[in-house]
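Z., the sequence and structure:
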Amino acid sequence: MHMSRSSLRFAYAALTAAAVVLVASPSGAACLRNVALDQPRLIPAAAGFGTVPPGQVGVTYIGHASFLIETAAGVKAVTDYNDYVRADIVPDIVTMNNAHSTHYSIAVQPDVRHVLQGWGGDGGPAEHDLSYRDLQVRNIPTNVRNYDSTRYNGNSIFVFETAELCIAHLGHLHHRLTKDHLAALGQIDVLMVPVDGSYTLNIEGMIEVIEQIRAPVVIPMHFFSRPGLDRFLAALKDKGTAMNYTIEYSPTAGVLFSRASLPQRPQLLVLPGH
């Protein structure tokens, strides 16, 4: 990693959202609309479903900001792959963001086929549009705040497309989204959202992002503790979002999604772990 550890830390200064560079999927994918810790501590986590039925996708919460995504063709992808918490499998694809050390790895397992970094070199944007078997992965760059400045293109929202579903992982999002971001994202079915309210975007701003994207299913992540999660849920209820999300608690860390199983009423789905 060419960046110093100190350069990856951040302050709470306001983020300038200008000069955002976007990378839209050149394939015109189905989602398009009409408009941290000090010392590494590897924690083996749930290994997921193993086998996913046709027309479905498996999503398992590993912990922190990492999810295991499994397709019917057996593809395994892990979001914000890092050296602290991992699934008990070797994924085919990993995505990473380097806003903090719990979101990227300096020791990627050798059998990982595709390593997708969410940050570009020399301030430029990362550009990914990967098709592997029945999974397509693309990214939309966003910015990261430092002590008193903005590091442009330091984070990526990754979009995973399979089983006629679009799953978006916001990574270490630090600012609200522009119309260009939303156009590049397209219609999202399942949205993974950091809800800590401090290291990433504040809670009020993150709720606005949820309302901007309007996904049928929202999964909170990056909340550190149950009280931290409860603060976000209370703010969501107090605000009375336009979509009026119901809050559901899954008894298991893994959930199977399909186009037919998406809820008719928007749902915030809490998976066990943090």
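The CA atoms of residues 3 and 162 lie 34 Å apart. The longest helix spans residues 226-239.

Let me know what you think.
H.
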